[in-house]
């Protein structure tokens, strides 16, 4: 069967009917109940069957980042903070790869934690990636100046445990 180009495909849901923005507790309940009963099978079809006016992508992201029982909640532990800092030094902003080292933490959660708690502490001023003739496997690299800045800051900070400097973020985790 020939494939139909995306611009010619008929949309099953009218764009005006789709809800955007914050999820309501009722929507969360519907999505959670549907997945618990039927499992995950087709994100693009699921909203229709679950009675939600959301896109499949929106449902998938809501489940993966917030509703899944596998998602770990609460403050980052000292060990997790240490892993995030060390992995950022090695990998830059490859949040999925970093999150894979932290069971129960999503890439989005790790990224948000870094930007709200660690970025200022580490003195990272600009984390934009630039295209360059010398690239890594993905075709991107961090500017040399930024790498040096991060490395020198981390070297100073790693002489004492990172979490020592970050106790003010999560004092309960220090107990």
Automatic annotation (TrEMBL):
Q: Which GO terms describe its molecular function?
A: transcription cis-regulatory region binding
Q: Which organism is it from?
A: Nicotiana sylvestris (Wood tobacco)
Query: What residue spans carry the region label Disordered?
Result: 1-23
The record, for InterPro entries, names: Homeodomain-like_sf, Myb_dom, Plant_SW-associated_TFs, SANT/Myb
Q: Where is the Myb-like domain?
A: 15-67, 68-118
Cite a single Pfam family from the UniProt record. Myb_DNA-binding
State where composition is biased (Polar residues). 1-13
Provide the protein's localization: Nucleus
Record has Nucleus as a keyword: yes
Its principal location? Answer: nucleus
**Residue ranges with Basic and acidic residues bias:** 14-23
What's the name of the protein?
Answer: Transcription factor MYB114-like
Write out the GO biological process terms: green leaf volatile biosynthetic process
State the Gene3D superfamilies in the record. Answer: Homeodomain-like
Q: Where is the signal peptide?
A: none
Q: Which UniProt keywords apply?
A: DNA-binding, Nucleus, Repeat, Transcription, Transcription regulation
GO CC annotation: what is one? nucleus
